[in-house]
Fold each of these.
Amino acid sequence: QVQLVESGGGLVQAGGSLRLSCAASERTFSSGTMGWFRQAPGKEREFVAAISWSGRITYYAESVKGRFTISRDNSKNTVYLEMNSLKPEDTAVYYCAASNTRLVVTTQRRYDYWGQGTQVTVSS
């Protein structure tokens, strides 16, 4: 059974930090690229960050570049999203996703497995 389980969301004040984690089943994690997406109320889900299977290549949405950092620990089958200098517009449900490709992809349709999401709320 393929599973992705996110954790680490919560309520934080603007300027604060949070670290999201996504634990994956071994089969999912060894597949390739991992990514984070988010969906704010009333908006479509959007790409946030992606990391290659080796961890050497990362890619970020312009809106989070310089504030968020994606990383992975393959020994723990876990991917992380470190979020700093949070803004109210970062408020959203954050989803972890796994792709079977080793290309660093940013489009949702290239991801094969999805977690249930974790809520991040940034107050002003």
Amino acid sequence: VQLQASGGGLVQAGGSLTLSCTASGLTFSTYAMAWFRQAPGKEREFVAGAKSGARPSYADSVKGRFAFSRDNRKNTVYLQMNSLNHEDTAVYYCAADRSVITSALAMAEQYDYWGQGTQVTVSS
């Protein structure tokens, strides 16, 4: 299984970015997918995620600003990030797991597969 994340970069506060994560080596439609992020000196935290066909869940810090979506035809998940601020600066990781339940979507230890991460830097 491989997860390839892309789309990170440097953006000014208030700006937008869209991250993508393309999966291979798995039956994508049967996997829950999620985005996590890790800022320097902080633990990895849940951003957004969903089981296939289910409504996404979001961290409180990104609700109303970020949008999670998945395209099962392209084996790809997206994270549309709007109104970015300095606190959103982090390495963003996509994750996949076949058996994670909805109530555990935010738990990093539940995921078997991780992408390599893509850096998002928000300048003031």
Amino acid sequence: QVQLVESGGGSVQAGGSLRLSCVASPFAYESYCVGWFRQAPGKGREGVAAIDADGAINYADSAKGRFTISEDNAKNTLYLQMNSLKPEDTAMYYCLASRRAGCWAVLRTYGYEYWGHGTQVTVS
């Protein structure tokens, strides 16, 4: 059973930073498409960032220049460093994983097989 557990959310003021983490078990991150999506109250899911199994990285336009996705394969942990946070970044953030190729398309079409329970980010 694949499990993804997010942490690191919280409440920050605009301009602040947070680092989200996602620990995966029992698979190895390097063989999967992995990433983050978010969902604000009353809105649909929005892809934030993704890393393909070959290392290719993609970001939503809203995240470019402010967010950085990374992974530590030795720890089976995925990260999302978020800087210069804005109130519109307020949402529940989820990590995801998929065996499918074309990670960014997978994320944007909700084609991932696994995701966690989320961690709340509130920016005021």
Amino acid sequence: VQLQASGGGLVQAGGSLRLSCAASGLSITQYTVGWFRQAPGKEREFVSSIRWSGGSSYYSDSVKGRFIISRDTAKNTVFLQMNTLKPEDTAIYYCAAGRAITSTVRQSNAYNYWGQGTQVTVSS
């Protein structure tokens, strides 16, 4: 199983980025795929996820209304569209896959597989 995260970069505050998580070795129609982030000196935190069943999406309060998670099942890829970026969004973003259910989608230990991370830097 491999999860390849890409799309990070340097952007000014107010700008947008689109992250991609390309999965191989598993089907995103059978796994919940989530995005987590970790800023320097901080713990990893949940950002967003999309459930395998029905495609329900979940967001942290800090990104709700600015970020949109989606998936392309034909490409076996999950996307995170990040709009109105803020300096506090600066972090390494990781995608992960697991059998998370509604009550556990925000918990990192509900995910078995992790990608390598992609750096997002938002300048003020």
